[in-house]
Structure formats: C-alpha cells, structure tokens
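Students often ask why inverse folding is considered easier than folding. One informal answer: many sequences map to the same fold, so there is more than one right answer. In these notes we will look at a single instance of the problem. The structure comes first.
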C-alpha cells in the first residue's frame, strides 16, 4: 500500500512495556518508505479513541495501533465506519486479532508489513453497545478477565495461574439464547462470541471463525473435568469445536438472557457484569491491514 502520512498510536504499557529503540525502528522504516510519521502516546483509558478520531479528521492515510487487543479496540472505535485503514503492531500479552491476521509479532517486521499489506473490510460487532473486533465472552472467561491483573502479572503465565485457581469454584450457568429469532435454553461455563479465531496466545476458541463472512461464531462451552487434558490440547491445536463439550452456532442476530448477572469481557477487556446481552453484527465496517500472504485465511 502507498501512504504519505501515518499516525502511530502507542500504548507504552502494553505487554512488556515500551522500549525507546522501538520508536527509532518505526521512524527509520517510515523514512525508507517516504512516509511522514506522527506518533502519539496514550495517556489513559479512552485516549486512543480520541487520538484515532482526530487522525481521521486530519486525513491521515493510515492509523496504526501499537499495543495489545485493548489498544487495537480503542483505536478502532475512532476509525470504525470510515474509510481510514487500521494497521496493527502487536505489543500486548495475547495479541489475538494480530495472530488471526498473520501479523508478525516482531516490531520491526510488523512495521514493515504495514507498507506491504492488503486492505480488507472486516466485520465488527457490539455487545450491549460496546464495540468488539475479536472475541467477547460471558461466564468464566469474563470472570477471569475482570480479575486478571488484580492477582498477578499480565501475560499467559498470570492468566493461567488465575484460571487454575478459580476453575473449580466457578459453576455452569443457565442461558436463554435467541439466535436468528429462535429460542434455545442451554447450560454453559463460557459463552464465547467470536468474530476471529482466538483469544490470544493461539488459544483458538473459534478456529473456523472469519472476520469477513458476515457471521459470528457462538461457542457454548461446558465445564470440562480437570483431568481432560486433551481438551486443553484441542484449544491450542485448533480443534476445540470438535469436542463434545462445545456447541458452535453461526449467527448475525443474537440475544442472550441469564437468570443472574454474569461477568463479561469485550476483546479481553473487563466490562463488569450483566444479565441481558444484545449482540449486533456490523458487516464490513472496518478497513484492516493484513499481510497479503494471509488474505485468504481470515
């Protein structure tokens, strides 16, 4: 892609933090491509959205989120439903959407790929009005997301430790699902609403999900006995949807009602709890950049 002006919105606190040499790498690569580079650093929650909106108004050719899935989500809120493309330099602890898109996890390679990418109009969706690009969830994953960071360091190790500690204490819950106008009653441990394939760290909750098929994958996961290590393997091997503990539905119209309030997350970010969820697909609403080699696999 040919760009003249690029805005990089950087979350210094994503992943392992910010290293000054990263700024130099970005500047050098932009110089090599004859691109005017602007950098802005986020100052707190919601700031990335403000910066992205300003970037759209100032007619930047491309806006790049430098951070994790939460930062990508915030930047997308300022870009969604505009023609401005979103690039990603993954710097988070999970990087679910970047992994799904095949974006390199190395900063130098990811920056270089911005200028060698193809653009694609991807679907997004909302959960009770909150924008989601990747995977949102209700139940145990929502519980962990809401407690993650309070009881340990961010990253796969901290997430795994917290999940193991709370797993036995968390029970399945009853849910009424209204899918394409039809009503279902189910018990679930996790209700995952997926636009792309994974939470992050290659934990593929919806391995067959696509960001451009105008459908969401609704994955209902039951509580798996702790001794079933094969289920954990299937999670990372991309076969979880073949397990007897999972039921997968595809839909573009979804409502979920619970008997009790349940914690949930949107793209890994904690959102508190609720007992009624309205999920709305927004087809082809965001222009995303991805390596051309992965264009057919999204």
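Output (designed amino acids):
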């Amino acid at each position: 892609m040919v760009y003249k002006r690029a805005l990089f919105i950087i979350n210094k606190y994503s992943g392992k933090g910010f290293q000054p040499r990263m700024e130099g790498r970005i500047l050098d690569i932009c110089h090599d491509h004859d691109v005017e580079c602007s950098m802005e650093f986020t100052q707190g929650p919601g700031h990335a959205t403000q910066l992205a909106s300003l970037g759209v108004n100032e007619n930047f050719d491309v806006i790049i989120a430098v951070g994790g899935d939460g930062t990508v989500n915030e930047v997308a809120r300022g870009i969604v439903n505009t023609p401005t493309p979103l690039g990603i330099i993954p710097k988070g602890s999970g990087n679910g959407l970047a992994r799904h898109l095949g974006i390199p996890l190395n900063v130098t390679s990811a920056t270089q790929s911005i200028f060698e990418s193809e653009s694609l109009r991807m679907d997004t969706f909302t959960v009770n009005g909150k924008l989601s690009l990747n995977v949102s969830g209700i139940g145990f994953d929502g519980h962990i997301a809401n407690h993650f960071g309070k009881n340990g360091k961010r990253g796969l190790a901290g997430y795994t430790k917290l999940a193991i500690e709370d797993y036995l204490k968390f029970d399945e819950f009853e849910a009424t699902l209204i899918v394409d106008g039809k009503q279902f009653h189910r018990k679930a441990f996790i209700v995952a609403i997926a636009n792309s394939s994974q939470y992050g760290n290659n934990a593929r909750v919806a391995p067959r999900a696509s960001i451009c098929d105008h459908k969401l994958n609704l994955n209902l996961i039951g509580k798996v006995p702790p001794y079933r290590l094969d289920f954990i393997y299937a999670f990372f091997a991309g076969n979880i949807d073949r397990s007897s503990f999972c039921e997968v539905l595809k839909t573009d119209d979804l409502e979920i009602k619970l008997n009790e309030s349940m914690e949930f997350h949107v793209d890994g970010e904690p959102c508190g709890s609720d007992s009624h969820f309205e999920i709305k697909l927004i087809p082809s609403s965001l222009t995303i950049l991805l390596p051309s080699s992965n264009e057919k696999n999204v």
